[in-house]
Specification:
Length: 303
């Protein structure tokens, strides 16, 4: 029997198998959808830009140079020294956009995670319990749903003061109800399943049933909602910062760039267009990724 060369044997055996196995994974199925591939590419690019901004940014985002103020982008008659132009204080727009991604994405992901933890906990407890506890928790959810998000955020941030910590706290307190309502409805359905009844009969504790049997079966909508909430949090952070109620003014953020550039829209359009495009692309990528995740994780939709 002729022995196949090791290199050819490895290639012939591992590559097709790896390809087939990868296509069956969640990432493989996600990438087979056009919206998933595009959304993942945009999100990955933005996250990489945020993480590597201290290394990749050409200049200090807060360094002022009044001799180079309001320089246009390179494609509009500017120079390669400032590829995307400069603002009214001569600060490099590209550097500020890259560093602004750090703040916006950090606030978006952290706030969505905190809101998800709070809302999921409330939804699980309310959906699995009965009587006064369920009624009290769901009436609390109804109260928060009745409060306008922007108004509540403006009032609380105005009272506590601007800052990243206060902004995260306010945004988390306004959005946890989205998770609570969805998890509550899913839990009401899951609690009637046979495996949950079997766990009760075996004498499993209340907490163990929630964590081991209910939570894994309501995780899919939680993941999808969390991706969409990240996009919403980025928009909310930019809006509050634009109103002067978000991050401190000495921090480079997309919201502050919009706020500072609004008075120069007719003179220097790039001051608002560039950060606006950064916000739009980030939100678009996250929304596309969220839609693809929903379709990928739905067992009724096979691709």
């Amino acid at each position: 029997m002729t022995r196949q060369p090791a290199s050819e044997k490895t290639l012939a055996f591992s590559y097709p198998g790896f390809s087939q196995r990868f296509r069956k994974t969640m990432l493989g199925r996600l990438l087979r959808r056009s919206n998933g591939a595009i959304g993942l590419a945009i999100v990955f690019t933005m996250v990489a830009m945020a993480i590597l901004s201290p290394i990749l940014s050409p200049l200090d985002p807060n360094a002022q140079n009044l001799m180079a103020r309001l320089k246009p982008p390179v494609f509009s008659g500017g120079t390669w020294t400032h590829v995307l132009g400069t603002d009214q204080l001569g600060r490099d727009i590209l550097s500020r956009v890259m560093h602004g991604a750090q703040i916006s994405l950090f606030i978006g992901f952290v706030t969505a995670a905190i809101a998800g933890i709070i809302g999921t906990t409330v939804g699980l407890v309310a959906g699995f319990s009965e009587g006064v506890l369920r009624t009290a928790l769901m009436r609390l959810v109804d109260i928060f749903l009745a409060i306008p998000y922007i108004l509540f955020a403006v009032v609380v941030v105005g009272a506590l003061g601007a800052g990243i910590t206060n902004l995260i706290l306010v945004l988390a307190l306004t959005r946890w109800v989205q998770f609570a309502r969805i998890v509550y409805g899913q839990t009401l359905s899951v609690r009637e399943k046979e495996y949950v009844e079997a766990a009760r009969v075996r004498g499993n504790s209340y907490l163990r049933i929630l964590i081991a049997h209910v939570l894994p079966n309501v995780a899919t909508p939680i993941v999808v909602v969390m991706t969409l909430e990240v996009a919403f949090m980025i928009i909310m952070e930019s809006a509050l910062t634009f109103l002067g109620l978000g991050v401190a003014p000495d921090t480079a953020t997309w919201g502050w760039m919009l706020a500072e550039g609004k008075d120069y829209m007719t003179l220097a359009w790039w001051l608002t267009v560039v950060p606006g495009l950064a916000i739009m692309l980030t939100v678009l990528g996250i929304n596309l990724l969220g839609d693809a995740l929903r379709d990928t994780l739905d067992p009724r939709l096979k691709l």
